[in-house]
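Page 47, continued from p. 46.
Same chain as before, 329 aa.
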Amino acid sequence: MQPRNMSMSGAVDLSAVKAAAEAKQKAEQARAQRAAQATGGQQPAGGAPAVQLVIDVDEAGFEQEVLQRSAEVPVVVDFWAEWCQPCKQLSPILERLAQEYAGRIVLAKIDIDANPVLPQQFGVQGIPAVFAVIAGQALPLFQGAAPEPQVRQVLDQLIAAAEQRFGITGLQVDPDQAAAAAAGQPGPPAPPENPTLAAAHAALDAGDLGGAVQAYRNVLADEPANEEAKLGLAQAQLLERVQAMDAERVRKDAADRPADVAAQLAVADLDLVGGHVEDAFGRLVATVQRTAGEERDSARLRLLELFEVVGPDDPRVSAARTALARVLF
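Result:
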């Protein structure tokens, strides 16, 4: 195996993979939305799960676990099978290096027997086969087992290319936790949860939206940079706004009065709660574009609030931020 020159000339077209994965993901999202609505529409606003540097990926999760994640970190994809002896030589090397690199890459392991469509889409001709996905684009790295120094050299090139070409620098991972994970040891204990934040989460889970809003504001009064509280506040405020809406009336009002900014904001809220994220963002960007003064500010601020609900790392947020910048400047 020779280390590759990290150009994008050998990139693999993932459009078909992405389309199939998106369809499966949307079906899962729709089921989750229905379940959330059946319990009042609330979703917990707890902290983000611990960063996983080695993940098992199937076809249903490929869109979220690989394509979306590749917008913030290079994803190394390892195609393997239980019967493949060279795979058993290479996989431990990749897993160890993923931990050692402490968030500069994520390793996605795909069992070709359980997921036969993905290797076909990537053009895998033999295993082990290792690819990288950066910013939604895939390129082959190498095929077959290889010694650790050569694997390390390829990964170093990949990390450099991701930063230079796309500005992707990886995930923020505590080096001590990464080292502990690599050694099979538990990481340092998490700090105790802020009791006011815990109370805010409990209020949100219980459907006490007014109480949750106030509790999150109390947290932010003491900790203005608390991202967990910002997310929880945005979720609680959104749910509070839509809980008493007559969806049919709101949509009719927006259609009848396209210049009514308040009507457009209400529909955007409904769209987001219903899982139509791009529709919500597109409506608000268009509203910002055709308004001025206080009306423009209200649409812009609502869009920023919805960004908080979806999360800054979601590629749909990145796309909408770009669109907003175009209409503002």
